[in-house]
């Protein structure tokens, strides 16, 4: 029986992904890796109403705290002999507010950019977590890197282990500076962290191949989903939804709006035979004007030396934290 671990499965894209996986295979064991027990149990209850026979486990983890990630990994290793899928989905965008001047100007000059990117969101700069790491990088990237490293033996046991990194269509090489790999000085730490996911995915896939491990790594984007990310005021999210539907109707394919549609690329890379997939692409969830989902493939313009340097830095940090364990 397959086992899928999904971080941030209680809401948005993660919740939609669980629905996709169980629709295809209700015998799959789902591990909802969430930070808040009551939100996770509430979501689990909703999923069990839809899939009464499903085997859904809740495990608590704060992906932005390395001790919590290591504890989570130990709990999983005690319970499961194999992992088929690790979905690195949980994520944060640390928003301070909205740049209304830019919002209005983009609305008039670049409405698609306004609705697809976070340019008009003022992001917190220089945030550090309790482990001394860039806060957004720690949650979006490093916690998942540590999970992936800890789970390599279990992923290998499945004979076709797949790690799926949730990136974003807003991320590209211009957002990332290897000299500020944790995005601490960046004005766009969110986009920087998402490009870091892409770099890690490609470089780790290469390493798995070289080490003959039966593990693959993929990167996906949910397009635009009207979720809780960025903690925007409720009325802003609702107002934006009108714009999302309008954009979708005029043919902007990124406007998935619901977490379920946003999860279609994650489900695709999990359920498609390996021989039909390409780890150098980013798989994008997309929607036609009537709300019918499909998956787009976008080539990733990865600088492999930067990618290797990033995993070298992550590995050093991972080993340093492991050695601090009691
Ligand atoms: N929405 C979009 O348009 C969009 C676009 C591009 C990429 N993405 C990416 O898609 C992924 C899912 O986002 P979403 O849109 O579904 O947002 P969401 O509704 O806010 O869901 C994010 C999930 O991550 C969890 N999470 C956040 N910080 C965590 C932590 N430290 N430890 C454990 N779990 C944590 C949240 O838990 P709580 O419910 O407890 O807060 C929630 O379950 C993210 O990686 C995001 O960057 C989203």
TrEMBL record:
- What protein family is recorded? Belongs to the short-chain dehydrogenases/reductases (SDR) family. ERG27 subfamily.
* Signal peptide positions on this chain: none
Q: Name one GO cellular component term.
A: endoplasmic reticulum membrane
User: What GO molecular-function term can you cite, just one?
Assistant: 3-beta-hydroxysteroid 3-dehydrogenase (NADP+) activity
Top-level taxon of the source organism:
Eukaryota
Q: What's one Pfam family here?
A: adh_short
Taxonomy of origin reads: Eukaryota, Fungi, Fungi incertae sedis, Mucoromycota, Mucoromycotina
Q: Which UniProt keywords apply?
A: Lipid biosynthesis, Lipid metabolism, NADP, Oxidoreductase, Steroid biosynthesis
- What is the protein name given in its UniProt record? 3beta-hydroxysteroid 3-dehydrogenase
* One BP term from GO: steroid biosynthetic process
* Gene (name only): ABSGL_15483.1 scaffold 17607
Q: Which InterPro entries match?
A: Ergosterol_Biosynth_ERG27 (IPR051593), NAD(P)-bd_dom_sf (IPR036291), SDR_fam (IPR002347)
In what pathway does it function? Steroid biosynthesis; zymosterol biosynthesis; zymosterol from lanosterol: step 5/6
EC number of this enzyme: 1.1.1.270
């Amino acid at each position: 029986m397959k086992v899928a671990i999904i971080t941030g499965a209680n809401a948005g894209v993660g919740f939609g992904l669980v629905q996709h996986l169980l629709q295809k295979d209700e015998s799959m064991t789902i591990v909802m890796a969430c930070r808040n027990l009551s939100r996770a149990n509430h979501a689990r209850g909703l999923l069990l109403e839809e899939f009464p026979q499903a085997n859904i486990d809740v495990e608590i983890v704060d992906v932005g705290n390395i001790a919590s990630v290591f504890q989570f990994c130990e709990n999983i290793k005690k319970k499961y002999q194999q992992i088929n899928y690790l979905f690195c989905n949980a994520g944060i965008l640390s928003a301070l507010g909205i740049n209304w001047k830019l919002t209005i100007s983009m609305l008039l000059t670049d409405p698609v950019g306004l609705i697809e990117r976070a340019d008009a969101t003022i992001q917190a700069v220089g945030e550090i977590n309790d482990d001394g790491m860039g806060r957004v990088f720690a949650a979006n990237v490093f916690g998942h890197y540590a999970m992936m490293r800890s789970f390599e033996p279990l992923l290998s046991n499945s004979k076709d282990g797949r790690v799926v990194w949730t990136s974003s269509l807003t991320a590209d090489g211009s957002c990332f500076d290897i000299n500020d790999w944790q995005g601490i000085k960046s004005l766009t730490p969110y986009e920087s962290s998402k490009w870091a996911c892409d770099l890690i995915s490609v470089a780790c896939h290469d390493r798995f191949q070289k080490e003959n491990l039966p593990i693959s790594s993929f990167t996906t984007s949910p397009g635009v989903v009207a979720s809780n990310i960025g903690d925007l005021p409720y009325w802003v999210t609702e107002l934006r939804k009108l714009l999302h539907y309008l954009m979708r109707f005029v043919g902007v394919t990124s406007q998935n709006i619901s977490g379920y549609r946003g999860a279609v690329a994650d489900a695709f890379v999990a359920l498609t035979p390996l021989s039909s997939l390409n780890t150098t692409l980013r798989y994008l969830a997309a929607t036609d004007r009537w709300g019918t989902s499909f998956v787009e493939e976008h080539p990733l313009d990865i600088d492999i030396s930067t990618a290797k340097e990033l995993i070298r830095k992550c590995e050093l940090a991972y080993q340093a934290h492991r050695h601090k364990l009691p």
